Structures are given as C-alpha cells and as structure tokens.
C-alpha cells in the first residue's frame, strides 16, 4: 500500500524534518510505500503551495 505525507511547520510544533522522519518511519514499520511527501514551511496561513501540489498529485 502507498501513503503520502503532508506536513506544515508551525511556530510551536515539530520541525518539518522531524515530521517527515516520523512519517517515513511509520511507513517502514507498517509496510507502506511512501509515494510522496509534501511540505509547507511558510508560517503564513494562506501560503499552502505544498498542499496544492499534493492535491494536484492526487488528481493525476
């Protein structure tokens, strides 16, 4: 089974690298193939380029 990850950095939350590592480790332990990872590093609420990329990925 394939999985995708979407991570967004917030002021008081885990850094993107830590979120991504946790996702990849989850996939490895549970037999998922990490098909794609999408990131939004901007702390601006309207800056969701990674989210839009993920939606486009899912449409194709």
TrEMBL record:
This is Resolvase/invertase-type recombinase catalytic domain-containing protein. It comes from marine sediment metagenome.
